[in-house]
Amino acid sequence: MADRVAALDDPQLRVFAPLIYVAWSDFDLDAEERERVLAAMAAQPWLRPAARQVIEAWIDPARPPGAGELARLRTLIDHVATTSSDRAKASFARVARGIAADGDARVAADALAQDLGMFAGSEITAPVARAIPRTALSGWLDGDHAEVRARARAWLATAHVAYGLPVEDHRTIVRGWLFDLAATGLGRLAFPGVTSTDDLAAFSAMFEELGHGDLSLLVKVGVQWGLYGGAIWALGTARHHERLAKIAACEELGCFAMSEVGHGSNVAAIETIARFDPATRELELHTPGESARKEWIGGAAHDARWAVVFAQLEVGDARHGVHAILVPIRTPDGAALAGVRTGDSGHKMGLNGVDNGRLWFEHVRVPVANLLDRFASIGDDGTYSSPIASPDRRFFTMLGTLIGGRVSVGAAAVSAARAALAIAVRYAEARHQFGGEGERKLIDYPTHQRRLLPHLAETIVLRVAFGELRRRHAQTFATPGADTRELEAEAAALKALASTRAIEAVQAAREACGGQGYLSVNRIPQLRTDVEIFTTFEGDNIVLAQLAGKAMLGAYRKQLATGGNRAVLRAAAKRVASVLGVRRAGTEPTRDRGFQLAALRFREDHLVETCAARIKKRLDDGLDGEAAILEVQEHVVAISEAFAERSTAEWFAARESAGGEASRELIARLGDLALLSRLERHAAWFLETGYFDVARSRQIRREVEKLLRELAPHARDVVDAFGIPDACLAAPIAFFDPAHPVYP
Amino acid sequence: MADRVAALDDPQLRVFAPLIYVAWSDFDLDAEERERVLAAMAAQPWLRPAARQVIEAWIDPARPPGAGELARLRTLIDHVATTSSDRAKASFARVARGIAADGDARVAADALAQDLGMFAGSEITAPVARAIPRTALSGWLDGDHAEVRARARAWLATAHVAYGLPVEDHRTIVRGWLFDLAATGLGRLAFPGVTSTDDLAAFSAMFEELGHGDLSLLVKVGVQWGLYGGAIWALGTARHHERLAKIAACEELGCFAMSEVGHGSNVAAIETIARFDPATRELELHTPGESARKEWIGGAAHDARWAVVFAQLEVGDARHGVHAILVPIRTPDGAALAGVRTGDSGHKMGLNGVDNGRLWFEHVRVPVANLLDRFASIGDDGTYSSPIASPDRRFFTMLGTLIGGRVSVGAAAVSAARAALAIAVRYAEARHQFGGEGERKLIDYPTHQRRLLPHLAETIVLRVAFGELRRRHAQTFATPGADTRELEAEAAALKALASTRAIEAVQAAREACGGQGYLSVNRIPQLRTDVEIFTTFEGDNIVLAQLAGKAMLGAYRKQLATGGNRAVLRAAAKRVASVLGVRRAGTEPTRDRGFQLAALRFREDHLVETCAARIKKRLDDGLDGEAAILEVQEHVVAISEAFAERSTAEWFAARESAGGEASRELIARLGDLALLSRLERHAAWFLETGYFDVARSRQIRREVEKLLRELAPHARDVVDAFGIPDACLAAPIAFFDPAHPVYP
Fold first, then answer.
1. Which of residues 563-622 of A touch B (CB under 8 A)?
2. pLDDT tens-digit profile of A583-636?
3. Could you identify which of A354, B413, B456, B667 might form a hypothetical disulfide with B502, taking C-beta atoms 3.0 to 4.6 angstroms apart as the criterion?
4. ipTM of the complex
């Protein structure tokens, strides 16, 4: 930092100029003054790290400013004082005086302020550290795992989000955070029964909280503990589990080498080979061609020393399908091991703090003990065996380890949306648009409410739903031999819905903040570009929706097959009843949860039934199953969405009464807004099927508009209840104070 | 570039390794070999600039590789050859042989290839430079200004898009492009009657083409010629026009200092003051407070030497409202002039090649001659006069200069969408998904078609519509004293619609390309983050939509007022006829353009009429106009969209038959898809109003699906017809060749 004065001439920093001047005015900075400056800085959560460094450089006791530097500092202060508005001057003086505390320094601060005409007509109040109000709503939102969440938040409060950094710097910061976080012990939650006595849901709740912070860190955490450690935990056995404590502590960094560039979403088709050599009892890993290159692997570009590599296992003449093998890829100091080639996936739209990379293996040999052998092993006699006879089921059981990733990633995407909405709501609540009377706040505009509030309500329903999904997931995984297929479909459908809605919400926040939402300092750009890929990674949303949709169709077919004609009739009767339900619904209040849930249930059932009928017709016409499903692909995808919308609504409804007296009404209105917005989104479909008549459709639109007006005054309370640490909001606009406007 | 061998180990570059090896194999590189390498490099449009630099470093005659470096190069080649698939090897060898041409070098190349086993089973064909097919569709799309467009494209073909650069580097490159482009003389088009004999539409068409390239350059062009030069041209007089030639040549760089941080969209409320001093006949510019800081000003952070500053003009005791004044802000070598303070707006989500900045003025004085005085002047006696008596009309006349910006920015946003769609369609057409038969292309999937094709069709309708709007704009501006209000409303509504749809389209392209669409090398991330702010700058879309909606309401009121009861009756009759039209429409084919246009017209008329009625009710209840309009704000905004959708559809319909025999059918189907997709988007509304019955609504959905299947095979032809230079597509995935897959 060559020129400290020039560096201070930054909108975020100018406010500190007088206090630095005062602190150094006797050409000596004592420890107490230094502490006061640091405290003042800590009270400004929007300061970016680079700006903090500027201040730190100024208060370095080893670098007292020379007379020339002090004179230039004084010129800067004069300049700011003369060109600033009275309000800005007041805030300027307030900070200076707050730091000066008392004694000589305060006298100096007052004298300086007086000199500059900075106190004129403005009161001086001490800066108040913002205490996040923990309301009944907060408690309800946190649900189980409040303690784990609190620990995650406390850590997040120390990690100031960075932006606009060169890739290397961003990666370095994120790596540092990962080690910091590991030092808190939170990583141990990832491995129930080995390093933790909690179930998996605690780790997932912690992960959800991290979604409020820098998403590059979130992904690094997901890779290290969720995927790398998670695969060892779920697919390995005791001899592998020994390393989990080191993995939790980040003493061993690994990556999860599944995807290949030629086979994005089709894991069964991966080409990397792991060939068993009976002579040495080794597995030889090999990348047979460029399309088999491991791609997008988080950690592979730089940090990972180990990899769980997914490869086609060959024993003798037989191919046994995809298996996971633990492979060292780098020396402790980061050099690639012999036969391993690594590469960098390159610059990305976002998440540049994650070192996504590529891996190629050239006849790399590891002991057979490195095969993660919970579901398959190679005996001393060199024969392959597995407790799961069917290769298909074995494959899906192994892939079942991915479910946790989907649960966690879906929930964390919604956290990112909450962070963006919190920034936008706080700004909308504080900033006045200079309209007719010059008094109206942004949040008072109907279009602004329409932009933000349905998304806000949706994030709450989704948060509650992921709480339930997390519980189911932990329970299933704690049950040996449990069938994971239903859970897999639920996780797929919810991840697809949540990540799609999360992007819409962050996008809405960006637009609601106008040009300010485009400035990186206001954090929304980073959230937006980071969250973008959540629709693609951990399973592309379209692929996941097809998976879920097909599962729903399968369950329906099974239900018909086992139930015979009676089941068919019951299904038909159910539909008729639903339709009749509407006719009655003309008199049912739109805000009735029963009405909303019935409509969402009708949509799901109707889509499943009509889709099954369309597929059957095509099969009857001689198409094969694959082709028949392809022709109705959009319909299958819609089933997944309808399923996720119905089930999350039901899970929300089951928990809403737990909110307690104080917040029950608010929670109910948020639920109404979220669920009616879902119905409004599908209004054309409901009208076409006859489930809504025109009056009902209009009524829903009007009700949404009414709810927007009712909820707008509570929006700030709701985002405060999220309890997101200031360091995560980290945007000047989130701390905009109309009485003392500081423009970022 | 310390280690040239390591630098070559990059997926984009490995293919060049053998030819570099061959070229240097006799430890001497002659000029001809060098040329061949350069030519091979030029034939790979997807190479990023940094990669080009690596190659250039290798063929620098002053830096022959040592024996050690050559040996390592050979190791790299061996490695690539052994780990690549046969297909990749073939493409590798093909390039090597193509460059070696003949003689000794070819012998060496063949020997090397043979050594590496690279020719096995693959034919060698010379690389063919891709000639963009200029079809009838291209001609129809280009319309007028084909020659100007061709010039812009030829220039664009030389400007390789950059990504992931540090801000300073990106700005430097963009600045270089701006000077390059100025050297072609295209900037002269901006000032009809002064530096050009064309009308304004030619400049706007040129600008539209630039929208296919780096959008930071587009914005710099918009600032320099459209806003800075444009303001001088439109608001100044002969004495100011003298500098336009220098501005066109970029010998004088300027900025357009209108926005203030406290008053984003409310120009009338800006606070900067320009006070006339009769003693010296100077204007004194002053920034009275921080909220008056000029913000977001493109060019203000670094490049601009001059600014057109918008300020409240004070003459004596009178305030005459916002006026534009030419103010020097920096010395030729870039130092801020006395009293001018400049700042940087900071890192942004995108467009970081644009040096957006801040300006503060501290009693800065300029001669009164610097007032842009076409619409207002200060006489020798110090009195203010204007040819436009009404201050309001004067203000709106001056702001009329912004219309051109909106026309151009709206059209260019659609260009960015076309570039992104071209990349996504080319990839979808070439890339096979490894599904059931392992043969299906991405474009064959219904969900993929649904993602991309409606957007593709929409960009075509919008392109044609902007051609018409551009024509109207040029005509209006060539007519002295023409009323610009209607044009202003049209431009506002179209800019809002186009920029919103453009973002949706780029977003769809991102999603359709999955993880590849998230890699910066594939260009879509930059297009996405750059285009994001097009909804906010040159007028926030919500504000513009309100402006347009209010204008439509005003026109309706006027029509009723002047027409009396008969007009009211006629309006009612029209609506009844529209509704009756639907009942008849049951038998009308959905692909009938008349049906589609009538529906869009009904939507616009109905929204205007019902909105007017809702406002009247509120006025009758005693609300003031502002409050009444605020309560129905969403309705007003919807009017703007409906107006834009109807008018662009009509303008498209008027021009579609000009497509010529060869492409008429394709154009008609694209029009169907675009217009029916609009109707599908509003299906709930049409059902609620009774304009559609359920059968019609379903029919439209089915028709859209049919059109998707029909148009999918033509998607590649359509994007090729855009004639976007390869250098703009610049994405490896856009040049993906399934026969020779090179993964980025």
1. none
2. 444 567 889 999 999 999 999 999 999 999 999 999 999 999 889 999 999 999
3. B413
4. 0.84
